[in-house]
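Notebook entry, structure prediction.
Reason for the run: the old model in the group folder had no record of what sequence produced it. Starting over properly, with the input documented here first.
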Amino acid sequence: MCQTYLHARMPRVDCPDHGVRQMKEMLRNLWGYVYPESAWKFWKRWYFWATHSRLEPIQEAARTVKSHIAHIMTYLKHRVTDAMSESINSKIQAIKQMACGFRNIEHFKTSIYFHCGGFNLYPC
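New structure, fully documented this time:
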């Protein structure tokens, strides 16, 4: 039987299976923070909790997240991702593959503007 104890918002759990699930769910709360300072404080507590658990997969996951924590904090501050630029880059690569090469760079530019420009080419 698992017993949970609440202590400083980081619960201590006697059941290891429940603890893994709870640590994972607790880390998901990191994305909900609006202020980076609060998120950083939460991160430090969660990281301490995870690294002091006796569960090697959790410790490994904590180290992995730690290697990306600067980028996560930047996202929390600005709430901007590079998904749109990656999407446009993907479309440009598809255009390049469909054409099997262009005679000159101007034709390539024209094709990019045609496919990615969002122009309405239908008559009114």
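Summary: The radius of gyration is 24 Å.
The old model has been moved to the deprecated folder.
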